[in-house]
Amino acid sequence: MPNHFSHPAAILRSIQVRKRWEKVFIVVGVFSLFIALATLVLLVSDLLIRGWPMLNWRFFTSPPSSDPEEAGILIAWVGSLLVIFVTALVAVPLGIAAGIYLEEYAPKNWLLDFIEINITNLAGVPSIIYGLLALGFFVYILNWGESILTAGFTLALLILPIVIVTTRESLRAIPQGIREAAYAVGASRWQVIADHVLPYSMGGILTGIIVGISRAIGETAPLITIGALTFITFLPDSPLTTQFPYISFNWVWAPFTVLPIQMFNWVSRPQDAFQINAAAAGIVLLVLTLGVNALAIYLRYRFRKSIKW
Asked: Where in the cell is the protein located (predicted)?
């Protein structure tokens, strides 16, 4: 039986059909991208128009209040920074260390495959599950209470799978020849990892950290589950003191709130003035997220530049 596509005219028609579908796909893709970007621009523009007039020194330095004209985000942005600091302090070193061990040291067997599957699945678990886990373990078993420490460890658990998976993928992307060349001149396994593999993979690792921290900054469900306050009028204790050793860790046990929860509290109020306050807090949260991302991107650039030179 002759092949229908063996005739030159049939082949030409088939190519023309494929090109038409390719053009249709490009048009649909560009249109979808335009709709997504237009929606984002409209939402951010509305946020800026409504919230910008509220962004003044009083708004940043005032605690929450029942009067929308006097309410501010001092407690919320300080709480967000402290919680994210604890989160990064726990998740980043643990995630990178776990990724290095699983990729470079762990024996390749069924147990490693089982761990890989579970870590990948944990990256997609809803955040409320982590909140329930933290409520049972950190709050009730360890008796940490509704504190900044509990919140930091909760969000650290949330982003830990992301950091681990990204670290492993970044290490795996490094050519095997770099490792073999280092081994050939007598380097130990740790010297190979610390001096050669990690510097080259740090860009990808920092990308995973950016994604994880950005997700943690905007989370509300796990923090509400562990007892984050929606209305609090006092700051935690200062981490610096005037007496030796000049450092205090009492702030980690303090109750807290964060910017997303403060926004939720204002949005639930019926007064229009609180809606404007929520929009202003949204701008601050957006800038805070972009600032963390910019810092991580700058660090990634510095790592890559140091390798190049």
From this structure: Cell membrane
